[in-house]
Amino acid sequence: MYFKSRYLDYGGGWRYPAIVMESTKDQVLHLVQGRGVVTIADLAEALGVGPASVRRHLDHLRMEGLVDVRAERHGVGRPAFVFYATAAAEERTPAGYPKLLSRLYAGLLSLEETQVRDSPGDEVLDAAFQAAAAQVAEEHRQEVTATALETRVEQTSQALRREGIVDGWAKGAEGYVFSNGACPYRQAALVSRGTCELDRRTIELLLAAPVRQVSRIADGQPACEYVVAAAHEQRKSGEEER
For tag attachment on the chain, is the N or C end more exposed, with fewer CB atoms within 10 Å? Predict the structure, then answer.
């Protein structure tokens, strides 16, 4: 998937990159794969296009055997129609997986013998994900150079958009919120939280500020979200003044 991006403000404080080279149909498929199940309204809101345009692209994807639809009933009233990726679409390995695997292998190879010997498998895997996060952050460190936290947030968002980790950010009551509407490795996230920790830790390392994850697509929520508290910026400013 090749694209060039620039940031646009779609209202509500959220800033998303405009995808220049990726077609709308490809974006629709990417979101369906990343979210698991979506409605036409979900897709229209995420892409900033009309429902009729989304429906047309979904029709084409269904004819290609990449997307299907089913009815889901929630309480009384008409059932909602949700769209999901077919097995044929899932067999198209998302771009994030080869890179994830290579980094995970590199993370495992970087571990000291003391980190592996007599350690449970889950601890070894967690350590490998931490090492992979450090690798991703190091690759993008030269892109995040600002001192002010808000500028670092924007620079981090731009850098990690290309990794599929972040697709927008906003400043809210709690602080700065990074959002990703299409998980780059949702199937892996259903099995282990390690991939989510890799993303969270990467953001944290680039910002040099504590980051917490508050929602996951793998848990059925509409987006993966990560928060860095604005209070950290205030504390840092106070320390510099002293």
Answer: C
Which phi and psi (to 5°) does residue 95 adopt?
Answer: -60, -25
Pairing of strands 212-215, 80-85: unpaired
**This model's pTM is above 0.90:** no
- 114-120: which pairs have CB atoms within 8 A and are 24 or more residues apart? none
Nearest to 179 by CA among 88, 19, 85, 46: 46
Q: What is the pLDDT of residues 3-59, one digit of tens each?
A: 333 333 333 454 544 444 468 888 888 888 878 888 999 899 888 899 999 999 999
Please report where in the chains the tokens 């008409």 appear, as a residue: 78
109 neighbors 116 (Cβ within 8 angstroms)? no
Read off the CATH number of the domain in which 172 is found.
Answer: 3.30.1380
Distance CA 95, CA 44 (A): 23
Shared domain check, 201 and 161: yes
Query: Nearest to residue 216, comparing CAs of 172, 191, 186?
Result: 186
